[in-house]
Amino acid sequence: MSSAPSPMPTSSHHYEDNSITEGLVLPLAGHCFHCGDPVPQPPFYADILGKSREMCCMGCQLASQSIVEAGLEQYYLDRSEINRTASLPTQLTRLEAYDHDEIKSQFVYAQDGLSVAELSVNNLRCAACTWLIESRLYEIDGISKCQVNLTNQRMRVIWDQNKLPISRILAVINEIGYEAKPYRQDTHEAMLAKHNNKMLLRLGIAALGAMQAMMYAVALYFGEYSGMLILQRDFLRWVSLFVSIPVFFYAGIPFFTSAWSAVRAHQVNMDVPVSIALIVTFFASLYATITGHGQTYYDSVSMFIFFLLAGRYIEHNARLKAATMANDLVVVEPVLVQKIAENKEDAALILQQLQQNAFDKVDTSTINQAVHETGVKSPISAVASAPTKYTPNFMQSMDANVHQITNRIAQDWQQTSRQPDISKPDLLKPDLLKPAYGAEQKQMVTAQSLQVGDIIMVEAGSEIISDGILLSPTATVSQSLLTGEGDLIIKTQGDYIVGGAQNDSQPFEMLVTALPEDSQIGLIDRLMNRAMSEKPKLAQQADKLARWFVARILVLSAFVFIGWYFVDPSQAIWATVAVLVATCPCALSLATPIALTVSTNRLASYGFLTTRGHTLQTLAEITHVAFDKTGTLTYGKPNLLNIELIKPVSQNENADSSALPLQKDRFLGIAAALEVGSRHPIAHALLTAAYQLHLPPTQALQHYPAGGVEAMIDGVLYRIGHMDFALDKSATGENVDNDLTIDLLSHRASSAVVLSCQTSSSSGWQALACFYFSDKVRDNARSMLDTLKDLGIESVMLTGDPSPQALVMAESLGMQSAYNGLSPTDKVNHIQQLQAQGSVVLMVGDGINDAPVLAAADVSTSIAGAADLAQVSSDSIILNGQIEAITAAKRIADKTERIIKQNFRWALAYNSIVLLPAAFGYVPPWLAAIGMSLSSLFVVLNALRLKRA
Fold first, then answer.
1. What pTM does this model have?
2. CA-based nearest residue to 273, from 563, 647, 553
3. In this predicted model, what pLDDT tens digit does every residue of 598-652 receive, in sequence order?
4. What radius of gyration, in Å, describes the C-alpha atoms of the chain?
5. If you write DSSP's letter for every residue of 580-628 in order, what string do you get?
6. What is the spatial distance between Cα 689 and Cα 637, in angstroms, rounded to a whole number?
7. φ, ψ for residue 484 (rounded to 5)?
8. Which residue from 584, 565, 578 is spatially nearest to 300, judged by alpha carbons?
9. Helix, strand, or coil here: 336?
């Protein structure tokens, strides 16, 4: 017989006793406080509502900690039940939506193994706001870097996604009183416009209240001298209070919320002294109104708020206008794209070949450094996974092999995309219709959902949102946004098209080879964001000084109050308020960021894109500028200078001199025929020179890497390439042309190739002609160097070109010193020698093979077209190829430094001069508000002068 069941324990045994808040729903003993499930032994714990609560798992522990840290503990007081599906706080649920991969992929990208996000931040008012956000985030484990830009209301955060989700970062920012959202240009501008409208509404209410309060104040002031009745005086005071209430409690709210957020975080910002002054003045006036003793200053409160809001409204619009200039550089992605098919296998094949070609172009020192930094043994994988400065340039890797693949893909697409012949039913079978492509289904998809391998239709007049391969026969595009050059570019089937270009002709089809965020225009936006987010040392020093100033103002105000309390208690409050207001260092906090933003955007209008925050400050300090030659001082596009015929052709005594031009044309035609299909700059120069000649057909064409080309023409085997290859010296050791020399100096050439032939397999190679090439010096290079010399800046040429012509070119340009035949390591050594002598060096390179020396210089820039934007090892990029932008950058950097120093001097002088009059009671609160607003406005207007630099 079974025993009777034991009685149910009382509720005191089932539920926790000592609840800290009445109405709090508690779980059964031994159950999870968050979800109600049984807890393990030992349990997990989380501090909630002042007590350590048991949790069943790490998931509930993290979830509850997120709720607490987001300031949403009220959730546990409001819930009516405990279960897994109980509704979480609305705000926390909204933020956790950003942790989903599909949403996160739209604004988070990877960099050096960490995650990077660009965020829009609302309610930023001064430099102390930016410092408060940065300081709070740096306290969280997993945050690597956080940079907040006051001017454009944006921030950039780098963190370890394995340690904390993005929702946690957003929750912390919300907790301290600011609203952060993923950045998009369109939504960011809408947010700023909404904020601007709110400011305008508050300003309007403050203006109306200030006017009414001043009217009643005038009556009160005259009443003091004309014997106004106490009843009349009290009536005017109550009416003044009535019109001041909306000004104080609505228009003044931004100051109070900002100050409270700072105090809650145990920090101070500009709004702390302002809020103290407003609260003391208003409630002192309220006390006087109620008791009938003392003076009222409702007019001062209303005017104070009005002048502060007016100053900030003007500052906000100036900052908004300056920040908008940078946004104009980047096209907002179209929301929908027409996808018609996909071919992921061929896209992967193209990318694999491009990566291999790009790897072949990376110098050995870069490969070794990448292997050392990443720890990856495979050289290709090491370069691919290394930091951004080692990223290979795929667009510079388009060679004959890649074009062969792309042309085959494009031709296949054209064949399979044609309408099938209805007279041949077999061709209508689905498996024969698209053998290499996914089924063609025209559909509109979002830009963010595009994948590598998708085939899309680009409508006429629309922006190209991603990089890809042209599948249609031809297309005409404009790359003015990327290069600054307005000329239309004709693309042919199989050519590479960059994202950010515009389709200026008929619709065309293209194979997507990069995600929109990884396209060239996406990279420009990313570089610009990085530059705008980073703070130079000068800005950091200004922020630190402003915070120091605020803390001292609060201490000084306390001494002023104590001093006046013993001298004249009736003036103690108003003198203290005047000091708090007049000496608020708003102008000091604005001195640097406004100037940096305007100058950065002014540089962008010249095509000089800064990608690092320190660029402007360092440019103002440079003493030397080091230049690479090929692709930097020159265009990197060689032209055929001369054809020198080799004996016995040219020295045959019986040869007719009139036949020499024909002989040169014959050899030029042969050389050009050998180079057909090659993308080498020398091949382009030869084909351009021979565009009117008949090119003989070739057979058994073969390319030799780092050597040249070999092919059979009319039964004779020809070679063209450098001398050792053309004469096959590596195989024979000697030949009939041992005395052949290439004289670059006398021909004023930068490079040369030799054409040779072999009449039979047993005979050696005979040199036929030597082709000399020159690389044209960039326009305005000489005037740019002369300008630098006039500024007292020494120019140096560091080039890997071993030819003596490089030194001749440097001398002709008036350069003070030049070194040729340098390896990347040699270039770095030269830069370090200059730095050891105390020099500040700007390095100007082509951004492809100069990554080590660009990184070694104090500041660097790359002469880059659209094909070179992937090289982000430099601190700045010249987008339009105009080298004279360097002198413009130097001029703007110098003027920026002068204006920042002027702003500093003005802000410090104003705060120092106004301090004593305010402390001695000669400055009323309303006049202090005007002075502070005008001081800030002067700093902003002075910085805006850089727009004309």
1. 0.56
2. 553
3. 887 788 788 787 877 678 888 989 999 999 887 788 887 788 988 888 865 544 4
4. 36
5. HHHT-THHHHHTTHHHHHHHHHHHHHTTEEE-STTHHHHHTT--EEEE-
6. 13
7. 80, 0
8. 578
9. strand
